[in-house]
Hints:
The chain is an alpha+beta fold and 400 residues long. The protein has 2 domains: 161 residues, Chloramphenicol acetyltransferase-like domain (Chloramphenicol Acetyltransferase); 189 residues, Nonribosomal peptide synthetase, condensation domain (Chloramphenicol Acetyltransferase, 2-Layer Sandwich), CATH 3.30.559. A 6-stranded mixed β-sheet has the order 5-6-7-2-13-12, with helices on both faces. Strands 8-15-14-11-9-10 form a 6-stranded mixed β-sheet, with helices on both faces. Strand 6 and strand 7 form a beta hairpin.
Amino acid sequence: MINMKMNDNLTKRPLTPGEKIYWTLEQKGMIHFVTVAEIETSVPPGKEAWQMALQTVQAKHAALNYSIKGETSETVHFQEHRSKPIPLEIRPMPSDGLWDHEAEKELAKPFDLNRAPLLRVTILERTGGCAVLLTVNHSIGDGLSAAFLLREIVATVASQTTLSTVRVLGEVSGQYPAIPERTRFDNAPPILVQHAELGSELTSHLIARAGEEKTTVHSVFTAAVAMAINKLSPKWHSEQLGVLHPVSYRQLMAKGESFELLAGMQICHYPLDRRHSFWALVEIVRKSLENVRSPETLGREMQSLEHLFSSNPDTHFLYQTLDTLTRHQVLISNLGLVPADTDYGGLKLKAIYGPMVLPDHQHVQSFGITTLNGSLTITLTSRWPIDGLLEAVKEILQQV
Length: 400
């Protein structure tokens, strides 16, 4: 049995410059994301098994116990709490068998930064399996953190052999009062989430073609998105497409599978015209992302962020500055190949989707890409979705 009666308010630490970015953006909107694990099982785990697994992983990762305190960029800090369990809800899967609408609800539900923890879990049960929705405030972790944590939760649930001493769900779950959705857009349209899976055959083909062309699957996918938008949105034909690429520094910093924010941003602009062939555009994308994970690039990014926050500017100035610097039309968050077993005894981890990120700029199309078990999954999140965009991207990839 895991003892939840530990001393509260154990430690506190200042936010890093990268974490302060998301804290600043949170002042005007909602900076959290959803990642989903699809699981197959003949015998669904009980609520006690899920709760015990969450207690186990929460005890291992400090960030899963954080709230955020402080009013300025100089004083803002994480406060660690060891008596606040991860909120957990278990519900039936919607009748259509899709978790998309539940992900939309999670994206529309803000976090109270003053309350730990800054993540929550929803499980949607169906016959033969379930979907686990992990919602995380971006200040405490990135997409890979979420994918690794989902895998860890599934493995922990599968390893349970006895549940007789675990407290019931209602006794340990943290359920906080609802707070209104925050958006800086007047009369903002509802959030729409879509998802698709390419399958192992097409995924293998894309990896092979990228290798033949001496490029990356990420570059191929980005070019496919640009081509699809060019086809579906004529108003953008004479413009460039601004794409935000989250860049993981996890390997460079030797952080392994630690749950924390270890990603930077790279915004690149690509031509939206019909003069470039598909593979020419792929090469433009590849070159734009050369050396983004080098120590020199990381050093420059950290130096510029430290300079931005060094004078303790007021939050409004920071927000306006970051809002301008991060403007984009497309976000492509690619978690790459997530290493994981497919079979955890009675549980099979079928797929991971996401991260689903709610964009902070108008008309942004936000893609999440993950490859697990040899199959690439795609999510598309937007308040202003381009009609048919996900299908058009898939069609282009099928023709590569």
